[in-house]
């Protein structure tokens, strides 16, 4: 079966691509130049070639795919989070879409309400986690090391991670915080946003002006995530907003204990025991599990949870059925069951 996939960014698409190829799918890419810029002739040509149109992101590429879709074809749209406050979803002709797959359950429910899309065509399909790839073990330092994977936007809440670290350092000076990902100064649209830039400058000044924080905080650049997670025993998810939060799930797959701040949808994706109302509650939870036996037990439970619900082979079968065959009735479950 021939699949034409369109997007401005395919960074989350590789597991879907692999799943479809493993099931005999033949894929071609319509790579857009930006959120709304593309080669109309190529888009039209690929639409005529394909049996299935796959719009990765619900942006203008999805609007165009719906317009180009023919009656013999199937159209699948993948909705992350970035699209929610843009105008493209409101312009999508949902009657010409067979399925809209959401990375997070909260945004699935919110989109159905906001855009009036058919409930039965909107499904939550989590981002796959390659659990086996994160089976690397932990170093001795992991037990006292917090990890923040992705911190380049204000909504990722570096400040909460620092607050938690300071609370732990009050009792034990051995705690450390490792932050991995792009520096916000390397992200043009973030650094050119004056309020956001000033916020980051304040956080970085906070670290630099505190001997205790300066010793305890380390910023890591690019490199294999699985290798980095060997030193991390506690994976932080302090964001204000996430559709799913793949970074937290990958940390759990590596056998790091999750520390998640409450936000809409968090308890639909992760067990409530690891979702905390505020930083004080998060610190208390860390201390309750800080001895090595308790931390190791919770780490095993976290890894088992991700392996059962979000492992890549399981979700590969879901994508194969959704795109190439009949959709399963329940492609994903909430953390409650």
From TrEMBL:
Superkingdom classification of source: Bacteria
PANTHER family in the record: GLYCOSYLTRANSFERASE
Protein name as annotated: Glycosyltransferase family 1 protein
Species of provenance: Egibacter rhizosphaerae
Lineage, highest ranks first: Bacteria, Bacillati, Actinomycetota, Nitriliruptoria, Egibacterales
């Amino acid at each position: 079966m021939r699949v034409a996939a369109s997007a401005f960014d395919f960074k989350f698409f590789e597991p879907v691509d692999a799943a479809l190829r493993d099931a005999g799918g033949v894929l071609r890419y319509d790579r857009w130049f930006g959120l709304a810029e593309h080669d109309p002739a190529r888009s039209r040509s690929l639409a005529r070639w394909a049996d299935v149109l796959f719009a990765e992101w619900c942006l203008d590429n999805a609007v165009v795919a719906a317009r180009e879709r023919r009656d013999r074809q199937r159209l699948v749209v993948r909705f992350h989070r970035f699209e929610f406050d843009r105008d493209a979803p409101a312009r999508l002709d949902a009657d010409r879409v067979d399925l809209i797959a959401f990375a997070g359950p909260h945004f699935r429910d919110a989109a159905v309400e906001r855009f009036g899309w058919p409930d039965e065509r909107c499904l939550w399909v989590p981002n796959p986690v390659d659990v086996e790839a994160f089976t690397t073990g932990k170093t001795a330092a992991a037990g006292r090391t917090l990890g923040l994977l992705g911190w380049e936007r204000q909504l990722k809440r570096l400040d909460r991670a620092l607050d938690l670290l300071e609370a732990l350092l009050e009792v034990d000076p051995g705690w450390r915080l490792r932050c991995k990902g792009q520096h916000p100064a390397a992200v043009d649209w973030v650094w050119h946003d004056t309020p956001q830039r000033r916020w980051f400058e304040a956080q970085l000044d906070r670290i630099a002006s505190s001997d205790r924080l300066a010793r305890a905080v380390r910023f890591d650049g690019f490199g294999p995530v699985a290798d980095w997670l060997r030193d991390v025993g506690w994976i932080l998810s302090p964001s204000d907003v996430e559709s799913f939060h793949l970074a937290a799930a990958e940390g759990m797959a590596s056998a790091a204990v999750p520390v998640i701040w409450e936000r809409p949808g968090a308890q639909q994706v992760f067990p409530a025991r690891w979702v905390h109302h505020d930083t004080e509650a998060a610190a208390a939870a860390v201390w309750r599990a800080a001895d090595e036996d308790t931390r190791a037990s919770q780490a095993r439970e976290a890894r088992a949870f991700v392996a059962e619900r979000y492992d890549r082979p399981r979700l590969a079968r879901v994508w194969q059925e959704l795109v190439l065959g009949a959709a399963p009735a329940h492609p994903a479950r909430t953390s409650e069951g």
